[in-house]
Design a protein that fits this description.
The chain is an all-beta fold. The protein is built from no helices and 12 strands.
């Protein structure tokens, strides 16, 4: 196993494979011992990586994906991730089957926001908004025998 040297446009140093010619601070890095690949641009403060753990050991937690865009931008908009799904009968760009969302340090709430109550004998209908992990996922009339659950 090679521990140093060059292969094509890549160098091997301390079991890490990285691009030799970093253009404008950008480079590709493969860390087989840590189990991840990263695309970096240190001059533009951009970091994108996927693998077994893309966070430093000092973070105390693990993440399998990390995308940061901290480039100074005169036009005023930076995007971290763009996701698209199209061309099928059902297109789901982002599916989050488990876990919570945290935005700006806050974990999103789940429940209903009631806007109006209509009581008819034997039936109560609530006009409201259904929220899951802080995202509005549905709105309309909901039938409940009792008050729908509030945000929690």
């Amino acid at each position: 196993m090679a521990k140093s040297g060059e292969i094509g446009g890549f160098s091997i140093q301390q079991n890490v494979l990285e691009s030799v010619n970093s253009y404008d601070g950008g480079k590709f890095v493969l860390y087989p011992d840590n189990g991840f690949i990263a695309f970096l641009n240190t001059t533009k403060n951009i970091w994108a990586g996927i693998g077994a753990n893309v966070l430093p050991a000092t973070a105390g937690i693990k993440a399998v994906g990390r995308f940061e865009n901290g480039e100074s931008n005169q036009f005023g908009t930076n995007l971290g991730v763009v996701i698209s799904a199209k061309g099928a009968a059902t297109n789901i760009a982002l599916d989050i089957p488990d876990g919570k969302l945290r935005m700006g340090g806050f974990i999103g709430k789940t429940g209903y926001i009631s806007l109006e109550t209509q009581r008819i004998p034997g039936n109560t209908t609530y006009l409201g908004i259904r929220v899951v992990n802080g995202l509005i996922v549905d709105s309309g009339y909901f039938n409940y025998n009792s008050q729908p659950p509030g945000l929690s």
